[in-house]
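Predict structure. Chain length: 315.
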Amino acid sequence: MTTSLTPDTPQPIRGVLAPVVTPFGYDLEVDTRAFVDHCRWLVDAGVGLAVFGTNSEAASLSLSERMSLLDTLIDAGLPARRMMPGTGTSSLKETIELTRHAVSMGAAGVLMLPPYYFKNPSENGLFDYFSRIIDSVSDSRLRIYLYHIPQFTQVPITLPLIERLIKRYPDVVCGAKDSSGDWANTEAMIRSFGAEGFDVFPASEALLARAVELGGAGCISATANMNPHGLADLYSALVLGKPTNTLTAALAIREIFTSVPMIPAMKYVISKVTHADAWSIVRPPLTSLVDEVGLDLMKRLSDVRFVMHGLGLNP
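Prediction complete.
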């Protein structure tokens, strides 16, 4: 199946996106109000929303929770054209259902993991998996960004697989997030398929400058949750070819967050900045950051003059 462009076709999403952290209450239910507020703050800061990604604890969210939260964001007036919700699961049928729902809500694209329970599936098996999703959704608005994070899934999205998918579905398979951390792989994706309109997003601002120089589409970075203004400014400066001093600061912030368990660390900091203790909660099997580690984290962030503009009292 090949699709064609229509007036309703989403425009390509570019720039910096945040894999949005998901707030929970003490009962481990999603705090929808806090979720909407955080998403609105991110959009206002100039970044897009890659909701239900790894740092969103998406693997700990149910099918109904993901769909309900996406509905809530749209109902709250947040722009679907700035959204790339994660829809990949281990279940073919659930991935189809999530993807169909995201498309119906007008999302600019979906970020799709490969099926990640069975290890080392064949290229033919993966091609069949993605093909069945595309054919089942059967919607000209569908835009898939493949999610390559082999250190978690043990199922790489290889260049030959991308080539086959683009050849069969040139209007649907339109990009990838490369979370491997391997610049050689990111570079190969851009050089191999960028000229065909395949948009590649590395998962770190550390690779953003090199990616943009080659034609990369931006980055989908966990720390966009914490430093959206800085990363949005960095991307704009890189695209316009303007000098910028924001990269050094952005890398210093990222280095601090990556030195501790990242999801609990980000949520701990938001809890302190917003004075909402429940923000520090993560769903098991993750564990919240203990105060000894969290207070040291806050001090180190203060030392590099870290500020979450507009989110509350800053460290």
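Summary: Residues 123-137 form the longest helix (15 residues).
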